[in-house]
Amino acid sequence: MQNEQQPHDDRLSAHYIDLLSERVGGKALACSDEWFAPCSNLVKPGRGIFKAGHFVDTGQWMDGWESRRSYGRQRPSGLDHDWCILKLGIPGVIRGLDVDTNHFRGNAPQSVSVDVACVAGDVDATTVWHELLPNSATQPHAQHLFDVHSEPVWTHVRLNIFPDGGVARLRVYGEPWANPANYVEGELVDLACVINGGRGLACSDRFYSSPSNLLMPNRGINMGDGWETKRRRDDNNDWAIVKLGLIGSIRKVVLDTAHFKGNYPDRFSLWATASTREDIEADDIAWTEVIAETKLYADQEHVFIQPIQVPAEAEFTHVKVNIFPDGGISRLRVWGTPNWSASNTILSGSNGSSEVNGSSEVNDSSEVNASSDPERG
Prior knowledge:
The chain is an all-beta fold. The chain is built from no helices and 24 strands. It has strands at about 15-20, 25-30, 55, 60, 65, 80-100, 110-115, 130-135, 145, 155-160, 165, 170-175, 190, 200-205, 225-230, 240-250, 250-255, 265-275, 290-295, 300-305, 315-325, 330, 330-335, 365-370. Strands 1, 2, 6, 7, 8, 9, 10, 12 and 24 form a 9-stranded antiparallel β-sheet that branches. Strands 14-16-21-18-19 form a 5-stranded antiparallel β-sheet, with no helix packed on it. Pathway: Nitrogen metabolism; (S)-allantoin degradation; (S)-ureidoglycolate from allantoate (aminidohydrolase route): step 1/1. GO terms for molecular function: allantoicase activity. It comes from Pseudomaricurvus hydrocarbonicus.
């Protein structure tokens, strides 16, 4: 198995969330052709692998989406390209794209384009698509990062490859749209969850895994699906800083050590701050203790309500989880009452409405109606 990787460019992933990731519910819905490899691979983690000499009925096994050869041949659809429609796991404003042709060397597309749509239900022949990325050249076995400028909230993307070929992964980076209409008045919301825009910003150590895993939906599936540090051999402790997706009060905290049995932290504490500073790791950031240093146990959810020391009206933008001395935790939930007006819920992206709809446009000239192309329904 060849798993050599080109240097991964994290310019987009360092600042935004992959709205299309399989981990947050992103999925491929349909495509024009997946003869060699299924389009469902586009949303999987990693950059894909290559198994030299591993052949299946259709040919060399490929870890990505690959259509059959069509250049110089007549297509039944009459199109000059292949396409794939995908649903974002998290609706949001798109800030960048990563089209990765890793391991596709003699079978990569010459160029790609991306369209977007915003629909509350299913994509069909009446769906109106808008051009997000114009036809752009691509290279074999390479990661292609594209900055995009679009303020509306989108729910679906359509990847077009010209004329055919294979793409290993598609990442759609942006800012999640937390819809206040989905919550009743007074309902507690997980302020830190990735679905609401929470992000792991920094940590003392990520030797085994990233603190961003702490904010993923559902419980962890194994130890790799959490945040784990290497073994300490000094008197210090490990820590991770999380930017809350929603500004709000902290009324309940859940810390889960699922799957961590011989390597869970002995103790933890939780701090919080309200700050707009970018240098959130600076020594002069004023942190408030939310939960004092507390004993932890293996492979279980720890629920904290009474131990929370901050007033109910206090609002925060970041939390810092401290673990003593080291180890791994699976999930961190920070339940509270969001300040919707102060939080970056991207309401402007939906034209001031709390409903997802298809009325927002990138620009009038980019509109593409799928009704003229039944193959894309």
